[in-house]
Amino acid sequence: MIQDRYHIGSGTVQLILKRYNASGFALEQLKSMEPPEVEMLFYPPENLQRKDIQLPEFQHYFNRIHSKGSKVNVSYCWMEYKQEHPDGYEQSQFYELYNRFVEQNFGKRDVKMAVERVPGEKMYIDWVGDQPELLMDPETGEIRKVHLFVTTMGLSSYIYAEAFLDEKLQSFSTGTVHALQFYEGIPKYLVPDNLKAAVTKHTKDELILQSAYSDLEDFYDTIVLPPPPRKPKGKPTVENHVRYLETHLVEKLKENIYISLEELNADIQKIVATLNSRKFQNKNYSRADAFVKYDKPCMKPLPGGCFTVCDYKTVTRIPDNYHIEYDDHYYSVVYTHCGKPAIIKATASEIRICDGYNRLICKHKRSYKDFPKYITEDSHMRPEHLYYKEVNEKDGAYYRRWASVFGPNMEECIDRLLKASKHEEQAYNACAGLLHTVKEMPHGIVEETARQCIQMNSCRYKTFKQVLSRMQSNPISPGVLPEHENIRGKGFYK
């Protein structure tokens, strides 16, 4: 009857009855006991332990895993144990025995929230905490540390890793771009850690991204969404894989010394490819399989072109001369932005200047010549500054051509004004001032004024202004019509 009701074999029924009779407990006593006590009575932990091999030294492994600065995990301990005892426990038994040891001696582990991961939704980004000394300078022999950039896809845990010389903004942005190219797609969210290279400010009320990362977000049409500060469980996938890579990637890399980043990254790609193709525990598929099947179809395609990583420079206050310095050159902005903050984004060919909110103000072609130092756009200048700039850029021929528009008298007057100075350049200001004064006036008045100045043999700025003023206050009389017989007169209409 027991076999039919619970669908178990006769051997199992006989074993349970045997253990029940051997326990010496009555059925009522068993009913009053706690379920774990009953379970331990009928299924003791020793049942899992194989009789032909000694139980592993779990206290030793526990101390190694939890020692300060250790990167060792249970998987690594099992591999080490298996090398020493080829006929020892398999991975699942080893894990079960170790977990029982921890529960019995150190209490039950924390329960965790189940998280439903959406295919192609999130790409997690971080730096590996361990900074191994792997790179040798071939000239000095000095061994340098390298920094390992790592990303994982949220559902498949598909890994990308790359070595850099630092963790600065340019390295972080370049790593992100290379990761997206590696995945050949764009997830809905990029989830970086709250690093200064990506995040300027992140509180409960406000999230401000670094300008470079904000530009990257716009270029790839994705959303940068860092987890709450000091909350590593906000991105458990990459945190777990950082620990995983510290063991299975970094320890492998430490076996060699490299003389170039290219050589190092080539080895990293090989090791990561192996890790991505390794089957999950108790699964018949790998990270690469899961990525191709689930994540990749749900990701957006890459845009045309490639995001250019710029050199960024923050300016707290635009100077009063509305020019911002970069690489020993000074680039103009609209003069109304004086006193406000700005951001310079420099590429090999272009200088972009944005306001404090990362909105584009203007852009210039980047200059590499020693001179001119000041790269100025005319539309950025105050009107009076533009006037003086134009004055300084013109020559005598320019002012003669301008004067000829009004007529021959004005052209001759300007010519005499230029020749009256010891050096022609000394009269440019006077010519510009005079021509700007009359540019909206009727040409007839301007010509008559010039004619009178020529007649007086005084083609000077002051004389011209005086004659012009007199003509404007005493306009020329239209004259009197001659008398003739056809005029009817006022009496005609009475």
From TrEMBL:
Protein name (record): IS21 family transposase
Highest taxon of source:
Bacteria
What InterPro entries does the record tag this protein with? Integrase_cat-core, IstA-like_C, RNaseH_sf
Concerning its family, UniProt says:
Belongs to the transposase IS21/IS408/IS1162 family.
Q: Give the organism the record lists.
A: Kineothrix sedimenti
PANTHER family for this protein = TRANSPOSASE RV3428C-RELATED (PTHR35004:SF8)
Q: Which residues form the Integrase catalytic domain?
A: 115-295
